């Protein structure tokens, strides 16, 4: 990864259960869609760290892009992309428990 961080992939059948487990403290962060995440951000249960699109989103205009958050050249548009290592990555928003 561009940041040098190492993560353990925990597969979920859907983003909603991943967000629920993050809020409950079972995982430290998750990548989720705005629809799955923003209600919890508004309630103060989660914190949006960055969006993976080139520009900020109108759904969460105060959330920086990944590039603005310190990961230059990082962007993902859509649900799935194929990265240079030929792995598939599903990304939208990165969030952490508050």
Short description:
The chain has 98 residues and is α+β, with helices and mostly antiparallel strands.
What does this 3D model show about the protein?
This protein has a domain at 30-97: Periplasmic binding protein-like II (D-Maltodextrin-Binding Protein, domain 2, 3-Layer(aba) Sandwich), CATH 3.40.190.10. Helices cover 19% and strands 21% of the residues. The protein has helices at residues 15-24, 34-42; strands at residues 29-32, 46-51, 80-82, 88-90, 93-97. The strands form 2 sheets. The protein has a 3-stranded antiparallel beta sheet with strand order 1-5-2, covered by helices on one side. It has a two-stranded antiparallel sheet with strand order 3-4. It is globular, with a radius of gyration of 13 Å. The relative contact order is 0.23.
Round the Cα radius of gyration to an integer and report it: 13 Å
User: Which sequence of strands runs across the widest sheet?
Assistant: 1-5-2
Label the CATH architecture of the domain at 30-97: 3-Layer(aba) Sandwich
CATH-assigned homologous superfamily of the domain at 30-97: Periplasmic binding protein-like II
* The CATH C-level class name of the domain at 30-97: Alpha Beta
Characterize the largest beta sheet: strand count, sense, and whether it forms a barrel.
3 strands, antiparallel
Uncertain parts: 79-93
Helix content: 10-25%
What is the end-to-end distance?
24 Å
Q: Got a strand count?
A: 5
CATH topology of the domain at 30-97: D-Maltodextrin-Binding Protein, domain 2
Global shape: globular
Strand content: 15-25%
Query: Structural class per helix/strand content?
Result: alpha+beta
- On the 0 to 100 scale, the average pLDDT is 77
What order do the helices and strands follow? Answer: HEHEEEE
Instruction: Count up the helices.
Output: 2
């Amino acid at each position: 990864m561009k940041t040098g961080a190492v993560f353990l992939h925990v597969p979920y059948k859907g983003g909603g259960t991943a967000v629920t487990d993050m809020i409950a403290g079972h995982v430290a962060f998750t990548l989720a869609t705005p629809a799955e995440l923003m209600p919890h951000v508004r309630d103060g249960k989660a914190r949006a760290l960055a969006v993976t699109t080139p520009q900020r989103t109108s759904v969460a205009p105060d959330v920086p892009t990944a590039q603005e958050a310190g990961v230059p050249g990082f962007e993902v548009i859509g649900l799935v992309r194929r990265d240079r290592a030929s792995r598939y990555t599903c990304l939208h928003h990165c969030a952490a428990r508050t």
